[in-house]
# Entry
Amino acid sequence: MQLDDVGRAELNRNLTALADGERHAFDPVYRTLWPLLVRFIAATSGDRALAEEIAQRAMLKILTKVATFDPSRDALAWSLAIAFNEYRSFRRKRSHATCDLQESVALAIPEHDTPEAIAMRDNLHEAVREVLAALRPTDREAIVAAIHAGQRPPVSAAAFRKRLQRAIANARQLWKRHYDDDRP
Amino acid sequence: MTMIAPDRFIEHARRAYEWGRLEHAALQSSVALLLTAISVGVCRESAWSVAIGASLFVLATSLLWLGRTAARAARAGLRAGVLAFAIPIVVLHGYFGADCSIETVLIVNALTGLVVGVLLSVQAMRLGGRCYAYLFGAGTLVILSGTLGCLFFGPIGVTGMVVGYFVATAPVMVYRGATA
# Structure
């Protein structure tokens, strides 16, 4: 659905009326905005099912805030800005939830020696070994020296810190490439 | 939040709209709470201040939530109400103090009502047929705000303000009635 200049002007008029308390402007605003929100979020996220869910949140947010709508602003731009913020906030929340889940999984690795715990630990050790093996020798040397507080390469403390930083960054990249995340 | 069934979503949307309006209205009316707090401190009639302040807050919130002419009246009434509240307090408490007589209270409050009434009448003239509702809504808020400031002086102060407001707005109402 495209919104031409006439439709846009009508949306401006209806949203301004709704902001002023004209309840009869509710249905026209709802009917005009809903398909636009779904299309906009579907285009942004590339996921039609997700688009409908976020469009619902965006619609509720728009209607909650409509009393503060400034009639000098463009109604469509104002609505889509709210929808985009909703999409961003959804993505942020989902990303936090994923991180929390992975952290909780990592923390939940059992210390005791049940067959599951042993298998999980072995898998994790194997994955770390693979990543370390794929590193350059200087990077591997720096990480191993830092973990085990062993003999450091014959460089200054500042140079070692820098080398370690680079080595960790490389290790993270390798981990991400193999396991699609930078958290072991 | 999970997705709401499309046929039920429109009801959620309507509720969100009404709640949003109510929240915004309460926020805009919060000036009534400030006036109440000052009135409690200045007028030493806490129970009356709280009762009148609460009525002012509820009425202003309701008018703002309703929207259209009612909301315009509420916004104007709250602005003018601050004036109707402040003038008696500044003049009678700050200037006259203990030397304040009944005549002084009556004159100051009547003049305050008159000034506020003229200001609101000028705005009401632009509203055409809806000016009655506008003047009535705004006037009620003005009188309640003024009462918060006049509690110390009793009913005489409030009467003065009501008379002043009525004298200022009556010509506009008569004129609008004649030209309608």
